[in-house]
From TrEMBL:
SUPFAM superfamilies recorded: P-loop containing nucleoside triphosphate hydrolases, TrpR-like
Task of the protein: Plays an essential role in the initiation and regulation of chromosomal replication. ATP-DnaA binds to the origin of replication (oriC) to initiate formation of the DNA replication initiation complex once per cell cycle. Binds the DnaA box (a 9 base pair repeat at the origin) and separates the double-stranded (ds)DNA. Forms a right-handed helical filament on oriC DNA; dsDNA binds to the exterior of the filament while single-stranded (ss)DNA is stabiized in the filament's interior.
Residues binding ATP, per UniProt: 190, 192-194
Region named Disordered: 87-128
Stored InterPro entries: AAA+_ATPase, Chromosome_initiator_DnaA, Chromosome_initiator_DnaA-like, Chromosome_initiator_DnaA_CS, DnaA_C, DnaA_dom, DnaA_N_dom, DnaA_N_sf
Domain Chromosomal replication initiator DnaA C-terminal: 391-460
Family, similarity comment: Belongs to the DnaA family.
Protein name: Chromosomal replication initiator protein DnaA
UniProt keyword annotations, A-Z: ATP-binding, Cytoplasm, DNA replication, DNA-binding, Lipid-binding, Nucleotide-binding
Organism of origin: Pendulispora rubella
Primary gene name: dnaA
Cleaved signal peptide residues: none
Quaternary structure, from the entry: Oligomerizes as a right-handed, spiral filament on DNA at oriC.
Ranges for region Domain I, interacts with DnaA modulators: 1-114
Protein's cellular compartments: Cytoplasm
Length: 485
């Protein structure tokens, strides 16, 4: 397959960049990988076998694709082909004696390079059939407990709602760009915070295997702290989180709220690591200043670095997320169904992916194809989906009826006080109830700027707490929306 010089040059630059991170391990694996082309952001690769594909995809492709993305701005998708002769391996295989000597040096002279063949038969086999990659497996640290192997940078769909958080996570993993310490990721449930934290751990483990990574949820941190107190093992506990840690990743820090002793212990661990310039990444469902029953000194430290929020994805990003998940899981699905799922499920990424998996499972069990009629029927059966099926148009219609306005008033340029108030209320309800993104709402309300929507939502939220009349209007509207079909 012929490729133009630009495509090939991009590939070779990315290979050289990735190889610099871990040359020995890289050469062992990439002698079983071949570049077949790069077109419109789709990187076509061939792997000698599935073992090589899976390992390269997990530990090397995030760095490689990020490098291409940084040079081109493309969203890179990797298309693998497994098996077949490799005419142009990315890395030329080393001489045969080097392979045998490396195997002997790592595992002893009698180590069989294959489970069913000894050294002699391996020496006579062609390179493409040898299992020489096993020494590299032994040399790489095992995966960390609790990490999802699918949560990598290459599987993360980037959009306006998460672009800053993604770039900051790349920097924290040493992938280029500024490094902020600490990095505080905040956002609602299921929007990708944990995905980014796992991706950082996978990237650091692949590129710097000796790095001591501690990944823990705040709940687990509390449990380990209590257990250490009961068993009088506090020295061991403190050593793990202070002395034997180069990268600390803590999920759902809001769980420490009101736990005074645990906050005290985390405060000292934080200070020790930060003073030693060890990277700290924390996630939360709220901004630091909104964390209730959290010590001020901790809140202050969370804002020392960068606070990056993740918003609900807009429609285009939701479509891309469902498409990516379908590719990963090998689910055949049409663009019309992808769009329908993204339009109906607005709340978070986790529910989007769950809906797709549920459709695929039901289609497999009933021997159906996932077409639009099938998707409509199945999603309608889900109570969570029914709650989300009230659309922006539904909210606008109910608000207009409540305030006795015409259907087009909310989209018009009319700034009369009564119309503007109704418009602001409709924006607030869409944002709170449907979790629509600010740009998406701006387009739905007469192509207004997202800052206009943000201002309206903040204003109505403040009035709800201070003005009984506004609160009464909102409660009446919410009761009506609860009955929308």
């Amino acid at each position: 397959m012929e490729t133009n010089p630009t495509e090939k040059q991009l590939w070779e630059e990315a290979v050289a960049f990735t190889r610099d991170k871990s040359p020995g391990s890289f050469d062992q694996w990439f002698c079983g990988v071949q570049f077949d082309g790069l077109t419109d952001g789709v990187l076509c690769l061939r792997a000698r076998n599935e073992f090589v594909r899976d390992w390269v995809d997990q530990f090397f492709m995030p760095t490689l694709t990020d490098h291409i993305r940084s040079r081109t701005g493309w969203s890179i998708q990797v298309a693998w082909t497994v098996g077949g002769e490799l005419d142009r391996p990315a890395i030329n295989p080393p001489p045969e004696r080097t392979v045998r000597e490396d195997a002997s040096r790592i595992t002893g002279p009698n180590w069989p390079a294959s489970e069913d063949a000894g050294p002699a038969s391996q020496a006579s086999a062609p390179w493409s059939e040898r299992r020489v990659a096993r020494p590299a497996v032994q040399a790489v640290a095992p995966p960390l407990e609790g990490l999802n192997p699918k949560y990598t940078f290459s599987n993360f769909v980037i959009g306006p709602s998460n672009q800053l958080a993604h770039a900051a996570a790349i920097g924290a993993a040493g992938g280029g760009g500024p490094r902020h310490n600490p990095l505080f990721l905040c956002g609602g449930t299921g929007l990708g915070k944990t995905h980014l934290v796992h991706a950082v751990a996978h990237r650091v483990r692949a590129e710097r295997p000796s790095t001591r990574i501690v990944y823990v949820s705040a709940e687990k941190f509390v449990n380990e702290f209590v257990q250490a107190l009961q068993e009088q093992r506090m020295n061991e506990f403190r050593a793990r989180f202070r002395d034997r840690c180069d990268l600390l990743l803590v999920d759902d820090i809001q769980f420490l709220a009101s736990k005074t002793q645990t906050q005290e212990e985390f405060f000292h661990a934080f200070n020790t690591l930060h003073q030693a310039d060890k990277q700290i990444i924390v996630t939360s469902d709220k901004y630091p200043q909104q964390l209730e029953r959290m010590e001020e000194r901790l809140i202050s430290r969370f804002t020392w670095g960068l606070v990056a929020d993740i918003q609900a994805p807009e429609l285009e990003t939701r479509v891309a997320i469902v498409r990516k998940k379908a590719q990963i899981e090998g689910i055949e699905i049409g663009d019309d169904v992808l769009l329908y799922i993204a339009q109906v499920i607005r709340s978070n990424v986790r529910e989007l992916e769950g809906t797709l998996i549920r459709l695929a499972a039901k289609a497999s069990l009933t021997s159906r194809i996932i077409d639009l009629d099938f998707a409509r029927a199945e999603i309608a059966l889900s109570s969570s989906a029914r709650a989300n099926e009230a659309s922006v148009e539904d909210v606008q219609r109910v608000v207009c009826h409540h305030f006795k306005l015409k259907s087009g008033d909310l989209l018009s340029k009319d700034r009369h006080k009564s119309v503007a108030f109704a418009r602001h209320v409709a924006m607030y309800l869409c944002r709170e109830r449907l979790k629509c993104s600010l740009p998406e709402l701006g387009r739905a309300f007469g192509n207004r700027d997202h800052t206009t929507v943000m201002s309206a939502v903040r204003k109505v939220k403040a009035l709800r707490g201070a003005d009984p009349e506004v609160r009464a209007h909102l409660e009446a509207l919410e009761r009506k929306l609860g009955t929308v079909d």
